[in-house]
Amino acid sequence: MKIDGRLNVLLAALLLIQATTSLAGLRPRDRTLSASRQFAFYSEDPILSAHLCARAESLKRGWLNVLGLSDQWRDPIIVLLETPADEGSKAPPIATQTLLFENQLRYQIRCLPPYNEDAILLALMDALCREYANRKLALRPPLPQAGANLPLWLVTGLAEMVAEKQAILLPVIQRSVEGGRPLTLAVVAETAGLPENEAERQLYRAHAWLLVESLLILPKGLHRCRQLLSEASPGMEPAELFDKLYANDIGFDVEREKWWALQLARKTVMRVAQSLSAVESARQLDEILRLHLKPTGHAKPKEVNFADWGQYAEEPWFRGFCQDRYNLLVTLRGRFHPFYYETAASYLEALNQLGKGRTGAFRSAARLAARQRVAADRQAHAFREYLDQAEQTYGSAAASQLPAYLEAIAKTEKPLSPKGSDPIRDYLDKFDRSAQ
């Protein structure tokens, strides 16, 4: 009797496990684990699961690289690739849940066919960000339904940065600016869900990418971007945390929109104007970092060396002047010759410290910028000498071949015409016509 009783208990336990597993949609024979073992895909198609596992790991590596993180995940991410839903079902194509299971959080993503890979990758990015943000939560009930409250623009922008779709997104930004209808920072920050219209969705994703990229290049941008995740909590609105982290850098309301306009202009300038030569980059840098003081009387204006700007930090006019120089350098840095790109970044850091009244940090940053400027000037000079020598050696032979080369290009060159429908172009053309 005891043996029969134990067998009955064992049989009942096995049936319960089978029923529970079936209800959860998790069948061990359909499971595919990723290389890091953080992702588990459940599907009747093992090839599809293997493909998505590889994409998930690639997404994760890019995310870790962008944020400068090490792979120290705590909670798994489960993806259920379901069979087609019943006709008339109102279930969303992708649904994400944060569940507490055996003293561990589990991020569960249910996907219905037809599977949209971009949407799945965006859901995975959301889960990665939430997993990082929720590591500080105590793993005991009652658990907040979704844990940390993350803004859509942050998750979307990080996904686009990792996907490296700048070549697609940049023209969208430029076209919206040229048409006079870019999304304002307030609209980007307050949007809670991706638009259903394809063109509007692409427009939002492009602006979210630009916002994340622009925040990352701010002083301490990488650290603050990580703070947007690590300090997010269930009871804090994303806008409140954003104000706390970025108020000193980009201000509030009108001042913040002005900063955003500079970021939009930075991307537009890169298109309508060619990159500057090394000589012109150096000249523009000198012009931006020039400070002339007009003394009283008939004395000549005094030019102040950049390293000595700190002595005027308490003057009432200086903070506005310093912010103006910073904005100009941010706008032009994207066009600088590669020799001067890092030099400009160091001068930006020095101006940022000076604008905050940190004269000690300014002097240190200014010394670094000065050393980089000397190195850039030497590199540019050596490069010019090399080109001059090459021109003297090979110039005459190349000159005789140039007309034939240009003629060959003219014969093979065909005008480029877009084929098919471009939803972004159609969407913006519609606004162009309505504005006339």
Task: Provide tags for this entry.
436 residues, alpha/beta
What does this structure look like?
This protein has 15 helices and seven strands. It is of the alpha/beta class and about 425 residues long. The longest helix is centred in the C-terminal third of the chain and has 54 residues, at about 360-410.
Q: Give the total of beta strands.
A: 7
Query: Which strand order do you get reading across the main beta sheet?
Result: 1-2-3-5-4
The Rg value, from CA coordinates, equals 28 Å
User: What's the average pLDDT?
Assistant: 80
Helix/strand order: HEEHEEEHHHHHHHHHEEHHHH
The outline comes out as globular
N- and C-termini, Cα separation: 90 Å
Structural class designation: alpha/beta
Q: Percent of residues in helical segments? A: 55-70%
Point out poorly predicted stretches: 7-29, 412-420
Summarize the structure.
The chain has 436 residues and is α/β, with parallel strands linked by helices.
Topology record:
Layout: H1 2-24, E1 31-33, E2 39-42, H2 46-67, E3 77-81, E4 94-100, E5 105-111, H3 117-133, H4 152-163, H5 166-178, H6 185-190, H7 198-216, H8 221-230, H9 238-250, H10 253-272, H11 278-288, E6 291-293, E7 302-304, H12 318-333, H13 338-355, H14 359-412, H15 423-435
Parallel strand pairs: 2-3, 3-5
Antiparallel strand pairs: 1-2, 4-5, 6-7
Helix pairs in contact: 2-3, 2-4, 3-4, 4-7, 5-7, 5-10, 7-15, 10-12, 11-13, 12-13, 13-14
